[in-house]
Amino acid sequence: MNSDSDLQIAGDILEVTHLLQTPREHPATVAEFVGLARSIAEDRSQWAHLVRYDAASRWYHRLRTGPGYEVWLLSWVPGQGSGLHDHGRSSGVLTVLDGTLTERTERGTRALRAGAQRVFAPGYVHEVVNDALEPAASLHVYYPGLTEMPMHTAPHCEARALPSAMTA
User: Fold this and answer.
1) How far apart are CA 126 and CA 108, in angstroms?
2) What are the tens digits of pLDDT across the range 52-83?
3) Residues pairing with 135 in the sheet
4) Could you give the strand order of the β-sheet that contains 59-66, starting from the edge strand earlier in sequence?
5) 137, β-bridge pairs
6) 3-state SS, residue 24
7) What's the burial of 160, exposed, middle or buried (CB within 10 Å: 0-12/13-18/19+)?
8) Do the beta carbons of residue 47 and residue 73 sit within 8 Å?
9) What is the C-alpha to C-alpha distance for residues 76 and 92, in angstroms, rounded to an integer?
10) Stated pTM of the model
């Protein structure tokens, strides 16, 4: 019986640099977009100084763009919400940076606390609101970049397009 572990046999894989993939400058897969969102979320110096809270409407700021994608920073004071919507032809990653947001879909409601991520495909209908007593901030990655946000009156109702503007 051999008691050597794979690590003892092969050595530390991180020391075999020719086997490691070079990180891409721009993400191309769902996993890479999730990783991009996580890395930005973990590095508060990239976004914390930019966040503004607006009592009149949700605040947003385009943080980054790349080939075919956009990264947006949003803030939410208590009571603010997105309305029931989808993201047109865009897929996305929603990451809660600070506070707690509530996501409502036809399948139910879930609380999203700081660090939580949601990945969605085109046509995914949801509403995001700040039901908490504290402000919240979130990061949104869209691929392709967000060009429309059809609003819905109920989960299975006909959508109506909004003017071209940044939305959740």
Assistant:
1) 10
2) 999 999 999 999 999 999 999 999 999 999 99
3) none
4) 59-66, 69-76, 136-143, 91-98, 117-120
5) 75, 98
6) coil
7) exposed
8) yes
9) 19
10) 0.78
